[in-house]
Amino acid sequence: MRLDGQVAIVTGGGGGIGKATCLAFAKEGADIVIPEVNLANAEAASAEITALGRQCRVIETDVADGNSVRQMVQETLDTFGRIDILVNNAGIFSYTRIDACTEAEWDRMMAVNLKGPFLCSQAVMETMKAQRSGRIINLGSLAGQVGGLVASAPYSASKAGVMCLTKSLARVLGEYGITVNSIAPGVAATEMAKNHPDMTDQIPLGRVADASEIASAILFLASEDGRYVTGATLDVNGGIRMA
Prior knowledge:
Low-confidence stretches: none
Radius of gyration: 17 Å
Oligomer: single chain
Structural class: alpha/beta
Number of domains: 1
CATH superfamily: NAD(P)-binding Rossmann-like Domain
CATH topology: Rossmann fold
Order of helices and strands: EHEHEHEHEHHEHE
Mean pLDDT: 95
Number of helices: 7
Helix content: 40-55%
CATH architecture: 3-Layer(aba) Sandwich
Strand order of the largest sheet: 3-2-1-4-5-6-7
Number of strands: 7
């Protein structure tokens, strides 16, 4: 029970890597808050979490809207009284070529994928600082490291920004005992990647990741096992990129 008694916010926790992370955390003793726009998926995930004996609160939230994020954090504090872990998982994806990308698509990608982690991290910051402890884990991407093998330019750019934001937050928050890290998954078997072209011949392990394998890496960074890791990006990509 590595997270016994802790409270974790997992944005976009209704499906894919987010849901796998919620379940991994719950199995280790954490109570969960799921900020989501897809409430049906979030409620289904919540039912699985409560079946594991943990509490779960679903809060309709637009991570790209500061007021919505601040209200979600306040509701979390009103319910649980503390926030130990934030996983900035919520994100959107596209395959649009740069020469076909609209300004609106660019803006929305940046708002959800990059502004969202900034707003959520800022909103939990004071609580974690007062506690003198906390874990923030951001979802980056292989696309943010290589410019996107098939992902769109705005998606790749937003994820590169997330991984840089991670370092900036880690420098500021370290003195308060708060670690900030990011995960850079490669291709995972999730709904978001269902139309992704087959790249298994480029992956040394010969298969795409299961969402639970990404969640295991997030769990490591959220737990005491990862207490001396901060400002880092952990590659979980089956070897498709070796830095």
